Amino acid sequence: MLAATLLVALAASTFPAASTAAAAEYERVLNGKFDSGSADPWWSSAGVTNRVTGGELCASVTGGTTNPWDALVGQNGVPFENEQSYTLSFDAHATTAQTIAAAAGESVSPYRGIAKQDFAVTTAKQRFTFTFTSTLDFPDAGNGQVAFQLGGQPSDNTICVDNVSLIGGVKPPGGGNPTPTKKVQVDQVGYVPGLPKRATLVSTATTPQTWTLKNSAGTAVATGQTTPKGADATSGDPVHLIDFSSFDTTGTGYTLSVGADSSFPFDISADAIKRLRYDSLAFFYHQRSGTPIEAQYVGDQYAHPAGHVNVAPNQGDNNVPCRADLNCGYTLDVRGGWYDAGDHGKYVVNGGIAAWQLLNSYERAMRIGDAAAFRDGTLAIPEKTNGVPDLLDEARWEVDFLLKMQAPDGMAHHKIHDAAWTALPTRPELDAEPRRLSATSTAATLNLAAVAAQAARLWSGIDATYSAKLLAAARKAYTAAKANPAKLADPNDNVGGGAYDDKTVSDEFYWAAVELYATTGDNAYRTDVTASPHYKAASLSRAGFYWGGTAPLGDITLALAPHGLPAADVTAIKSAFASVADQHLTAMGQMGYATPYDNSVDGYVWGSNSAVLNNAQVLALAHDFTGAAKYRDGVFEALHYLLGRNPLSTSYVAGYGEQAMQNAHHRFWARQNDPTLPIAPPGSLSGGPNSALQDPVVQRLLAGCPQQKCWVDDIGAYSVNEVAVNWNSALAWVTGWAAEKSGAPVSKPDCEVGYSANKWQDGQSAHVKLTNTGTAPWTAWKLAFAFPGTQRVTTGWSATWSQTGRDVTATNMPWNGRVEPGKSVYIGFNTSGSGSDPTAFTINGKSCKTG
Description:
With 851 residues, the chain is α+β, with helices and mostly antiparallel strands. It is built from 15 helices and 37 strands. The strands form nine sheets. Strands 12, 14, 15, 18, 19 and 20 form a six-stranded mixed β-sheet that branches. Strands 1-4-9-6-7 form a five-stranded antiparallel β-sheet, with no helix packed on it. Strands 2-3-10-5-8 form a five-stranded antiparallel β-sheet, with no helix packed on it. Helix 5 (442-459) runs parallel beside helix 7, helix 6 (464-483) runs antiparallel to helix 7 and helix 7 runs antiparallel to helix 8 (523-531).
């Protein structure tokens, strides 16, 4: 999301005399005409408020300051070349005539000056200009600065500038990506034994080249020939394919070489993907708001006090009012949740899809995978010994926040964040900005309805009271959204936080209806599901899904969770996933750096790496639904791209790979700006290439970049190198799936459930056998499962039975709670309604073998 880059302003200095040397015709400032309506990247100092009005940047300046430099408007990252000539020109006028200074120099200590000149600004617009020679050398996106000094006046004033231009220098803008690259591109982390192993060679040769695989001792262990692929338009590279799949010996420190060019080292092992499954989830504890981040879980360098709990200088999230223009008449306690990205905002639509993705990862594992991988004690979080699967614990931190964002009328506020953008760096506990609720929106309300209904389904066998609370909130939200079907977020509400506006919410209506139907079985929700234009994966395409396009989330739930919809419709949904996955594989086969991403319409967009991962989730589900190995292999190709097999020789995941992202756009992981602060922690995902070049750093550095090379590891490059919860949730889903498919040990079930039923026209009598297949006795037990149809438990025996929606639980009686290893207990029930037999069972939260 957009973020301000408010750096230390240019202070008073001694400046050289102006020069009359001729300047080259290179424009060095960005957005000098303000035609877009945005001031970015122009910043203002304390006591100055910028706004763009009438196509001008107008600065409201508080009077009473002593020096001209006490009130500033400026732009950082302006390049200057030593001994080169520059001409600064601009239009200006003021409400009250005053003298201002235009200055060029250094934006950080020791604030060396290059040039400065005073100008008498009047109430009439005038054109001003002066020429000077630089005495300093600042590369693109370095510490050069242009600023207007507006202070030293006794009274308030407004000064407007327009058509700001700095022409000069001899080096063309966009001198090339500063990231060092290799000619042989590999996954720098590792390749899983038994799966394809591919790399990319950058070479203009038109004939096959000899490649050599060497072990850590430098000994050649395999060799072969490359396959020339020619020019790769997306990366701009001439490429060859290297396939070394035939070598499958586990080890570390392998390298691939072609001639004198060698790759970064990598492993052949599943160990790294197993670690990344958990490190990608650790990101969310780091991002928790309203609680201290403790060293015992993250280490000393990442620990910090709780942010936004009304401890000075925080103004806190305990009682947050609406924006002043909304007049909502109440405040909300919205402590908790995850900070969305590199700033301190919290957003329902982005938090919604992130929470859903974590919950879906667990639901998929519970129904068709390895839920034991997320059992209690697997994550380094405070809840690791509470008896609840840790993945659900982490998701609950956000789900509880979503509930707090619900207004009294059932609608949900779109977001809560600072009233103004904070500077880099700003530790969360030191954020002094006021906090404000934005308006409620239909999209946010449907996010709340969908996630709360999904969570109610998953908690029904763990905490019935909490499950009921979630379902009540979901129902209330859905009803409110139907009463307010077009209350859209304001696209201009982007001061202090991103707008996250969404013009179409039919997809959110479909998603929310699906989750409510899957949890309750209510016919009203079923009708909304089947009547939706998104039904049966109608919206699934190579473009994938994201926070603003959520219909495929509903499709995934219908493909995984039990419900009463026709089996043919579910088959159609699963077939759509395979069809789109095939489209990805066909396109990937033509790429120099294979990745499931469709760049045909918008190029590489903000957060492109999350799109890669969401499409990898489609491939993963296609494998789940069909068993076809080609889809599994496509998932790993996507991970190879993210972990180093890309044209920038970069792993976009912090802590993974020889050349991994470090300088994420983040207000606490900000070592690039403050050496006392940490870099991004392991498992954090960078947003990735963005060919639209939407921040000043990349605009200066990367002009003309090929799409896959529009990225740089710089804290100021927020449009390519920010982090976000919905990007890491995608990484967590995919790496959790990949770890499961990598030979990660699947725990032997400690339980087995036998189920048989005698059926009649509108009911059945079911007999259930629970067997302890573990090594320790059960002292108590709770069985949980979900009916796929309209069945309702009418009576039961040998257990205490309860049902919420389709979810059924049975807990032991006082006399049959203890079950020794190898022994069984027999229970049963009668139902009304119809439907097929349940197929997935848990006892005490653990998935059981069925027999």
